[in-house]
Amino acid sequence: MINDTIKILVVDDEEGILDVTEGYFQRKGYEVYTAGNGVEALEILNRVKIGCIFTDINMPIMDGLELAERVRQIESTLPVVVMTGYPSLENSIQTLKNGVVDYLIKPVNLEQMELTLKRILRERELFVENLILKEEVERQERLRELNTELVDKIEEVNTLNRVMEDFSSTDSSYGIFNKVVDLGVEELKADKVFFHIYSEEEASLVLVAKSSSDYENEDIAKRFGKDISDRAKAYILDSLKSDENPFLMSKSGEKNHLDEPVNSFMVVPLKIREKVFGIASAFIFQDGRAFSEKDIYYMNFITQKAASAIENIALYENIYENLFSTLFAFVTALEVRDLYTRKHSTRVAQYSQMIAAEMGCTEEELAVINFAGSLHDIGKIGIRDDILLKPGRLTDEEYEKIKEHPVIGAEIISKMGLWDREMKIIRHHHERYDGRGYPDGLKGDQIPKLSRILSVADCYDAMASDRSYREKMEKSIVLDIIRENSGTQFDPEVVDAFLRISDQELPDDF
After folding, report:
1. Please, what is the end-to-end C-alpha distance for the chain in angstroms?
2. Disulfide: which of 34, 356, 466, 482 matches 361 by Cβ 3.0-4.6 Å?
């Protein structure tokens, strides 16, 4: 067959894929037909003698597997190649039953697709020439080969998916380092795996994770654990500059430089923006076992995904810190305007944490309320100075303006797009337990629990601090007021927790 006589049929419900594939193969001299589903494909097969079919699996009306079965019944020698973005063992087995000759995983490289086509057409020619004598034998052999290839491909895809899922669920740098080590043991079946931070400037390595069960955090500060000698360290560094493997036993059986004979060894750099950040090293000590090319491929993939995860975490932490610093700068600017409320937000955050801890809140809730407490009055930056700093009693109109600050603060936090819970806590920290608060008149359990805690802490500090319109109140009087308003302004459970800790030394001065 030559290109200008070969007719191929591409079946896919995505027009973009059809257009790109049709254009590519037409430029290569093939005659291309396209269909959006299996029914349209069968109509074309009734009119045109097709040489090869490429089909997606998931399509409306008639999917790729049913199409392949229909084609096999009509013309058993017509090759069908399945393309899918969601490989699974079940689909793979089903394609074998339907006589599919190959299996490509999307996104499909067009050059690879053409190579597959040429290979399949050559195989078909031989197959047709020897059909009478060899049909059953070749068919069974091809199915066995295809089955092996498909199982290998699916195993590889599943391994890569597991690696990606593992790193996507890891939220710390040291968690990533340990994940590299764990995956090295699980996927490569290595006897021992290490991960070191690499300093190009000092030409040195620092051990941060290893597969040994006795690994402890203090090892992070040490240069190499007891498991690796200084000579091994030198060889690992040399491996960065050479493809040679200095750890393998020589053909004569000479002992290498390690105390424990190493049958196979690999070292793979973890690069961030083309610079070596760390080194993953893996060892096999057992005779008769050695790392394969696929193992090296897997370890390279693991370090690549680890590098991406480290970059993402660093980027997120940098963005988080910058936003947090900016917001605190706003609070500082606000408190500078008012001498009497200076460090009010810091005290409220600490009071809130003490109450929350007494109520048995989780570590996450303690962190959330610390953030919300520190920024609960950030909305006052939108209130005019003549109202905010007024020494005397506010008018009704001025008080309504002051009451806008929780909403303003929540809107500022919402623009950051990171702290939904904190935004709600700030918005509702002036709600009352009896429903007569603001801005939304929530009552009881409608008010977020951490807002109810923040409300008590905020009111305590406001009464126990000097203000422009009055001096601070005695602590005993403040506690009586909070106790008297339990069940009306304040959540009784929060008040009880606050009173239990009220004898503790509170951070009054900062």
Report:
1. 87
2. 356
